[in-house]
Amino acid sequence: MTEEKAKVVIVGAGMAGLTAAAYLMRENYNVLILDKNDKCGGLLQTFQSGGFSFDTGPRAFVNSGIMKPILKDLEIDWEYLENRISVGVEDHIVRFNSIDSLEEYKKMLINLYPESVNDIEKIIPLIYRLSEYTKVLYEFDNPNFTTDLMADKKFLIKKLLPWTFKFLNALRQFNKFNMPMEVYMDGLTDNQSLVDIILQHFFRKTPTYFALGYFHVYLDYFYPTGGTAAVVDLLKNKVLKGGGEIKLNRNIVAVTPSEKTVTDSAGESYAYDHLIWAADLKTLYRYLDPAGLEPEIKEKVQAETERMFAAKGAESVFILYLAADRPTSYFEAKGGEHMFYTPSRIGLGETNRLERENLVRDFDSKTKAEVMEWVDQYCALNTYEVSIPALRDAAMAPEGKTGLMISCLLDYDIVEKIEQAGWYAEFKARLEDNIIRIFSETVYPDLADDLLFKFSSTPLTIKQVSGSSEGAITGWSFESEVPVVNKLANIPKSVLTPIPGVYQAGQWAYSPAGVPIAMMTGWYATQKILKESKRSRGK
Ligand SMILES: Cc1cc2nc3c(=O)[nH]c(=O)nc-3n(C[C@H](O)[C@H](O)[C@H](O)COP(=O)(O)OP(=O)(O)OC[C@H]3O[C@@H](n4cnc5c(N)ncnc54)[C@H](O)[C@@H]3O)c2cc1C
User: Fold this and answer.
1) Spatial separation of the C-alpha atoms in residues 288 and 417, rounded to whole Å
2) What pLDDT was estimated at residue 157?
3) Which residue ranges make up each domain of the chain?
4) Which ligand 1 atom sits closest to the C-alpha of 287?
5) Confidence band for 2, pLDDT divided at 50, 70 and 90
6) What is the pTM of this model?
7) Whose Cα sits closest to atom 51 in ligand 1?
8) Terminal-residue alpha carbon distance, the chain
9) Omega before residue 398 within 30° of 0, cis
10) At the fourth CATH level, which superfamily is domain 7-48+62-71+228-312+474-538?
């Protein structure tokens, strides 16, 4: 007689939910995914407009020794393409082909800030060092997904053990560089512009090891043929082929652990043996009904709820989508497929600190002109991430034309206040016009004359699409206390909640997060369920 497998309900069909489902299908669990949207993928979508394909989420993926091994482990065949990163400031552009490109980066910085040459001489070796530690973490395929360890003794002795020592050392080093990047850089230079140019495309207060070690991550990027959402389709098809069920347009508005059910906005309830919440965590605690739980569990749930609501999602993004009547070869020669570009060496400085804080705090006393002045300054001094899908996969744009995404970090609360003030459309248009003008005057001369169409999305769009608190694109902000696990050594615990039968997964379950962590926590949640099933069978 075949054993009846437990029913697992997964809320959220993003990368975390889909990964968890694909692993549970492999173990023949009875899996149902529920998502409020009309398609899978969450933050990660690729869409068509006027013959051009654009990506809404990551501009490309970082493997991190996680993503490719998971897809291989799930026996998903797929194709991916090279994705090279460039870093540009004004008319200097450096392409990262290997870690030695840091020499060119150093030359660029010295060219821009000759007065700070001694500081740059101190900063670059630190970047090298932290990038080397990052390499240890990223270059090795995560052993959880690679091989049957006990069966492959040669791998265990020759590869895994030596790597484990290097890995533990890298973690120790990272712990020494856990302080916010701004604080650490303060001790290395007084040149605020130099600090901004190196750091301002990271979330505020990013740990130093992550920001300065990121130069190795530049070498780890790749792009799936057909766009980033190709991976979503592959995972979705794997789940469906294995017999899993995905119900879309189901907005979950109640979680009742005492009954082991979740309920959607149409009033339909879904029973589970295990629940994986692979969506925004504030939403989980907002909709959680603790009635019927033991008093001590209720207390823990209450404490967890308070921790979640005291924290904030990280900065969000403004994305400008452009279709240009220029061939891809034009853009190839100007930074290529994926570039972090800063049009001015001055750096954001106080625009992104005191002035932004004052703007949010005193918004009601500011005139529209004053806010727009801040917006203009923010655009002029910011760093932009430029992505060109057709420079990786030619099929992503009509021949002879190019689609671009140009994005910058932007705080949700500013946009929310502007929307409440009633001039959201005007604000969006101002950002679009500013960015087009800035790029037309700098790296892509006269681009404005060759545009076929444009549109944009804001932090409000992100919140609407994924249900992400504060429109955050990668989970928790580093500016308030992070309410989830944030040490790599503890990542297996990141999926635990105080709620009986409920696990959490995705970008909110661990910090810092992104696609690899979303997938990894999806896998960890399934491992906990497998263990629990074994335990209850043994009883
Ligand atoms: C512009 C941008 C750039 C990015 N760049 C990078 C990058 O360079 N590298 C990187 O690793 N990551 C990057 N990310 C982040 C990455 O896309 C996310 O971390 C990852 O996709 C999160 O996956 P997830 O499954 O945890 O969550 P999500 O993708 O947010 O999925 C959650 C799902 O839950 C659903 N949901 C929410 N509430 C409910 C509810 N009440 N009921 C039912 N369903 C619900 C949502 O509809 C959504 O489908 C970027 C994201 C953006 C937007």
Assistant:
1) 28
2) 84
3) 7-48+62-71+228-312+474-538, 80-222, 315-466
4) 41
5) very low
6) 0.96
7) 57
8) 19
9) no
10) FAD/NAD(P)-binding domain (3.50.50.60)
